[in-house]
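Page 42, continued from yesterday. The earlier attempt failed because a stray header line got pasted into the input along with the sequence. Redoing it now with the clean sequence only.
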Amino acid sequence: MVIIGLTGGIGSGKSAASAAFAECGIDIVDADVVARQVVQPGSEALAKISAHFGASIIRANGSLDRAALREKIFANHDAKAWLNNLLHPLIRAQIIQQLQAAKSPYVVLVAPLLFENGLDALCQATVLIDVPEALQISRTQKRDGVSSEQVRAIMASQWSRQEKQAAATYIIDNSGTVADLKRHVESLHRQLFELATTKTSQ
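This time it went through. Structure tokens are written below.
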């Protein structure tokens, strides 16, 4: 299976890009979706998190209160490390399982922390959805209703734009419209389709 990693900083347009790949008939495995699946109500991971951090992080409907959990780990390095040690192996195993089940000519692995978490090691090539930092901030503020300081704090916890540009195989500029992004994705899809069919026929 040819795996293509898709990443980008907050507000870059990863979701719109992955939707465009899906419209081309490509299977998508989204690390954020997997991260939610491994802590769904009744899961062993959620029980361990509740035992460690207390029942206050579980909502009345039995689901994880992500905002409450974020508050507990935000400034606590040990708590964050404990959570990562629990969840990262589970998420990685589930990602690999979903990638192996993909049926399209190639599969796209969407992960905001593709490089930071070493998930690019699973990929034959990587795609960076790239926008200037000022645009990242304004788009995220508009979408999430947060302050520029909050957006900058999230950006500071990720690789810099320059680091991602240096690591990526392909870069898509998403400073234009959604229609522009779709055209870029469709063009790259044709290249990746060719790459995948060449590899699988070898």
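Notes: The first strand starts at residue 2 and ends at 7.
Reminder to self: strip header lines before submitting.
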